[in-house]
Design brief:
- The protein has helices at residues 3-11, 15-22, 35-42, 57-74, 90-97, 103-109, 116-119, 121-130, 141-150, 178-188, 198-216, 237-244, and strands at 24-27, 47-52, 78-86, 134-138, 221-227, 250-258, 274-279.
- Strands 1-7-6-2-5-3-4 form a seven-stranded mixed sheet, with helices on both faces.
- It starts with a helix and ends in a 7-residue tail after the last strand.
- It has one domain: Rossmann fold, CATH 3.40.50.
- The chain is globular, with a radius of gyration of 19 Å.
- It is an alpha/beta fold.
- It is built from twelve helices and seven strands.
């Protein structure tokens, strides 16, 4: 797909035309739902956890459309946040959104992912245009890496300033949650990412993201973007949010790739309130 065709598809085609073949929306039971019903199901939420596929171009396009649709209805009553920024970059994000410096300065100083311009910059620019607060929710990677190698107790070596960017310690970790158990099994099989404290590292990411969501919701809808594995199965971030405040309404979205988009694969049933299925050969962000 050349750049011109890609541009035309992703910026000019109406959502209802493009949706017919490019993706399918399902509820948790595997029933197809329309985009309008999908959106209306989220409008009364306190928190939306939009689980993404990090390098799926259409997934990023769709999450931007959802954010635009929510903002059109809520008119400033939306807070945006994402896993793709670490909490110690918050001041840089705030200053950029206020127009204090250029995008070049922003990209030079913030810790952006390799596909930032394709995947996440449109979210940041929309937040800037609409004067929406954007919250960096993820734990700084250096601390998550430390935990993965040496465990939670290793964080006690840090200076007190560092704890502004981490969920307050101690925090609960339920190692019996299916997602964490699966991670432990993968780690025990000697996969390349295997480290001694992988569950603890995953948990502190989930708990930290939940912590910053709770701190910054401000009676608005918090629209949070994260990898699907951080909220699938109503675990991860969702689990920590509910543990802190069981009464809040949280809507989860999971993104999956399938060969057949007409029927939800069995393994994808009941993993989220809504499941978005994309083609397996969707173009990738880099």
């Amino acid at each position: 797909m050349n750049r011109l065709v890609f541009y035309l598809l992703f910026t000019l085609l109406p959502l209802n035309i493009f949706a017919q073949d490019a993706y399918t929306l399902f509820d948790k039971q595997g029933k197809k739902v329309s985009y309008d019903k999908f959106l209306s199901g989220m409008e009364s939420a306190d928190i939306i956890l939009f689980g993404e596929i990090h390098d799926n171009a259409l997934c990023h396009w769709l999450q931007l459309q959802v954010l635009k649709s929510l903002e059109a209805v809520k008119k400033g009553k939306v807070v945006v946040g994402g896993e793709f920024f670490e909490a110690d970059d918050q001041i840089i994000i705030d200053e950029y959104l206020k127009g204090y410096f250029s995008l070049t300065n922003f990209k030079d100083e913030a810790k952006t992912w390799s596909n930032f311009e394709q995947a996440y910059l449109p979210i940041i620019q929309f937040s800037k245009e609409k004067h929406l607060t954007f919250i960096a929710t993820n734990i700084p990677r250096r601390y998550a890496s430390l935990v993965a190698k040496k465990g939670i107790d290793s964080l006690q070596l840090l200076q007190s300033e560092a704890f502004k960017w981490i969920v307050p310690l101690p925090f609960d970790i339920d190692k019996n949650l299916p997602g964490y158990k699966q991670l432990a099994e993968s780690s025990s099989q000697g996969h390349a990412f295997s480290l001694p404290f992988m569950i603890e590292a995953q948990a502190i990411k989930d708990a930290t993201m939940a912590h910053f969501i709770n701190l910054n919701r401000a009676e608005k809808i918090f629209f949070h973007i994260n990898g699907s594995y951080h909220s699938d199965g109503f675990e991860g971030i969702y689990w920590y949010l509910k543990k802190k405040n069981p009464s809040q309404k949280i809507i989860t979205v999971s993104s999956k790739e399938q060969k057949n988009l007409s029927v939800l694969d069995k393994e994808n049933l009941n993993i989220a309130d809504y499941i978005i299925c994309f083609p397996e050969d969707m173009i990738r962000t880099k």
